[in-house]
């Protein structure tokens, strides 16, 4: 049985049925958290078993032992009015323009400052909305949430059947080799890098359609090859998810040699800081996305149905389009 003794802290007693199980399996079974996030939580030293800190997810537990999960270190909360970012609202669905830097759902030890909890708190809803799909913490834009389980199941089934399309705008470092096409590389969890994924022949099938919209920096010369030391420039690329794997666009763009700008995980270059609130690229500057990537969800639709949700480019990108 588990209980919260303080905000973010979880206490539980190992039951007889859990005797001899791995700590990892017990925590996954109780909290339903993703395995890689549980592993990271244990290795970070936030889990105590029988009064002793345990950092081995494979540690076996015994009936009657007390497991304590300490809350994650607090991160500055985004000062965002989610009510003002609602794009559509009815009794079944809410569509949000998710800000970059805000997680879509709770993670181990952290259930505040995320889309589901903050939206319910802001709107005064007794139940948390259910994400029909998720956006990475650092990705912004259109996010669809259901307000009841039946609606969530229907929309998620449509996604599983390939009848939903989601499209994004991305700013890449370097230009894709063709003006438009299909990236098709399988994706799996990276076995030795918690929370990350990788392109691998044994991964799940993944497809992303792309189209180059144009250059965004004066250094862009039409080449994605910067091996000679030249600046490959920044490019605006429209991406449409055919499948919906975690980190799919980020991985596919990186594999194609044109990673998402400011993506430290998958090959985006570290940036040099210019004036406060701006990023230096070559001789020019871009507005800094606080806590976010230059990847924005701009639409969601049911391919053979009446539902289609579009939004314009994010407000903090407006100056970029003026530069084209």
Summarize the structure in words.
A hairpin with a 2-residue loop joins β17 (278-281) and β18. 16% of the residues lie in helices and 30% in strands. The chain has 324 residues and is of the alpha+beta class. The relative contact order is 0.12. Residues 220-230 and 272-277 have low confidence and may be disordered. It has helices at 23-31, 35-43, 115-123, 149-160, 248-255, 318-322; strands at 2-6, 9-13, 47-49, 52-53, 66-69, 86-89, 93-98, 130-131, 140-146, 164-173, 180-184, 187-189, 197-199, 207-215, 234-241, 272-273, 278-281, 284-287, 295-302, 308-310. The protein contains six helices and 20 strands. Strands 6, 7, 8, 9, 10, 11, 14, 15, 19 and 20 form a ten-stranded mixed beta sheet that branches. Strands 1-2-5-3-4 form a five-stranded antiparallel beta sheet. The protein has a three-stranded antiparallel beta sheet with strand order 16-17-18, with no helix packed on it. The chain has three domains: 2-69, RNA-binding S4 domain (Structural Genomics Hypothetical 15.5 Kd Protein In mrcA-pckA Intergenic Region, Chain A, Roll), CATH 3.10.290.10; 75-161, Pseudouridine synthase; 163-324, 2-Layer Sandwich (Pseudouridine synthase).
